[in-house]
Amino acid sequence: MLRRLYDRVIALSASRRAPWWLAAIAFAESSFFPIPPDALLIPMALARPDRAWRLALICTVSSVLGGILGYYIGYALFDVLATPLLRAYHYEAAFARFKDTYAEWGLWVILVKGLTPIPFKIVTIASGAASFNFPLFVAASIVTRGARFFLVATLLHFYGEHVRGFIERRLTLVTTMLAVGVVFGFVVLKLV
């Protein structure tokens, strides 16, 4: 069953519409969707290593645009949804401290978390809620998301056939490692 699923994803990732789906997933993941674009970027780059950098560019642009939506969600909806709760629990001072801390360290939060598999939407929404400097947010998002997606694309461009062969020989091991990575990401997310 796992082999059939893998073969199906590889076949779908080579279709004409796959780049549009990649763009949609990268956009949505940065603002509200739980699945990272790597789930489609990697098989697409494995299917066509010669297009890996183009796919990374699609991911980067779409992710940054989705991040802008996430920022807006945090900025515009925070007052409507969270401010009454903060007032009710008398956490206004705690949130003010959070904003001050985010103003000081937010750039590093964006740069570090944008490289990890931790959902980027958390960073984008928190940046908007903290009213982090918007142009700096966009610039940092371009750098960090671009670095992440282009690193994956470069590795797959040069080593895609070897990686694909390894995955196909050890599919169960690879999927187990990916599952452990996802669980680890959510554990880290809970602790942060």
Quick structural overview:
This protein has 192 residues and is mostly helical. The protein is built from nine helices and no strands.
Could you walk me through the main structural features you see in this protein, from its secondary elements to its overall organization?
The chain has one domain (2-191). Helix 4 (52-81) packs across helix 7, helix 6 (92-113) crosses helix 7 (120-129) and helix 6 crosses helix 8. The protein is mainly alpha-helical and 192 residues long. It is 83% helix and 0% strand. It has helices spanning 2-13, 18-29, 38-47, 52-81, 83-88, 92-113, 120-129, 134-169, 171-191. The protein is elongated and about 55 Å long. It has 9 helices and no strands.
Strand share of the residues? under 5%
Structural class: mainly alpha
Mean pLDDT: 80
Low-confidence parts lasting 5 or more residues at pLDDT below 50? none
Distance between the termini: 36 Å
Number of helices: 9
Shape: elongated
Mind describing the biggest β-sheet? none
How many structural domains in the coordinates? Answer: 1
Helix content: over 70%
Number of strands: 0
**H/E series, N to C?**
HHHHHHHHH
SSE arrangement:
Layout: H1 2-13, H2 18-29, H3 38-47, H4 52-81, H5 83-88, H6 92-113, H7 120-129, H8 134-169, H9 171-191
List keywords for this structure.
single chain; mainly alpha; 83% helix; 192 residues
